[in-house]
Specification:
With 272 residues, the protein is mainly β. Helices cover 6% and strands 42% of the residues. A hairpin with a 2-residue loop joins β14 and β15. It is globular.
């Protein structure tokens, strides 16, 4: 049975057919139909929209951030109350903290998301541009959960403050690609060989198509359209990341992803 799940859906026109243990960051489908199709209104990806900061977070490093998740978790935060969330604090001022956060969906400290928290109640988790792949969104250790590593970081802030929040209110934005309007994320965990297929409408422009790979097997591999792009042991417990390059994952086509004795994550940033 395929797993096809997500926070919410916003775009008509994507189609996914997932095999067995695939996790797709799209709406869960009931019954035996394991595909999201244009006939399923709203089936698609997660919207990217700029946070309504309105100059209230001058210390946030917009010029360093890539894909990000954000939420105003409360009206005000005492920074001492959230300091314990951080694995490391890299920068701080009287009204903000910036550092990394240990999240259950990541294994190594060099893959932990960065987090900005300020006294006005904002929590913004982000991947530093040029340092992490967008595929580091993948929740390697929670592959059947509706989450990302960035959402996990924001949830950690809420937990530290003993707040109950609706994680469905978390917004996403790509500061490096402000023209982007959405992203999709798909994951496959395969003990043998498993496939999933992604159909991209011709009306979309693919801005970035990135992959993450994790395997403890020397015979593990992953392929796109039957061409292997990574093989072997990824290192323990870390993952390997890369991108497919311009035009490799094209719009107006269906693409086949295969994982063999490995976990495979695919993240695509696009504009309409």
């Amino acid at each position: 049975m395929a797993w096809i799940r997500g926070f919410r859906a916003i775009l008509v026109g994507f189609a996914v057919i997932a095999a067995l243990v695939a996790f797709v960051f799209w709406p869960e489908l009931d019954g035996g139909n394991d595909s999201a199709t244009p006939a399923n209104p709203g089936a698609g990806s997660i919207a990217l929209a700029a946070p309504p900061l309105q100059g209230s977070t001058p210390a946030f490093p917009e010029d360093q951030a890539g894909i990000s998740a954000y939420l105003k978790v409360t009206d005000s935060i005492d920074l001492d109350d959230v300091r314990g969330v951080f694995f490391s604090v890299e920068q701080e001022g009287p009204d903000f903290l910036i550092g990394t956060v240990s999240v259950p969906s990541s294994d190594k400290d060099d893959e932990y998301p960065h987090l900005y928290v300020d006294v006005n109640g904002w929590a913004i988790a982000y991947m530093p541009r040029g340092l992490y792949s967008d595929a580091a969104l993948a929740p390697w250790r929670q592959s059947h959960q509706n989450t990302t590593t960035l959402a996990d970081a924001i949830a950690a802030v809420a937990t530290e403050l003993s707040l109950l929040i609706d994680l469905g209110l978390i917004g996403y934005y790509h500061f490096e690609h402000p023209e982007a309007t959405g992203f999709v994320m798909a994951m496959e965990a395969a003990s043998g060989t498993e496939d999933f297929f992604v159909t991209i409408p011709s009306t979309l422009q693919v801005i970035a198509a990135e992959w993450g790979y994790r395997s403890s097997h020397t015979l593990g591999w992953a392929s796109l359209n039957d061409d292997q792009f990574v093989t072997g042991h990824s290192g323990s417990p870390s993952a390997m990341y890369g991108n497919f390059g311009s035009g490799v994952v094209a719009s107006g086509a269906t693409h086949k992803f295969t994982a063999n004795r490995s976990s495979l994550a695919f993240v695509m940033i696009y504009s309409e």
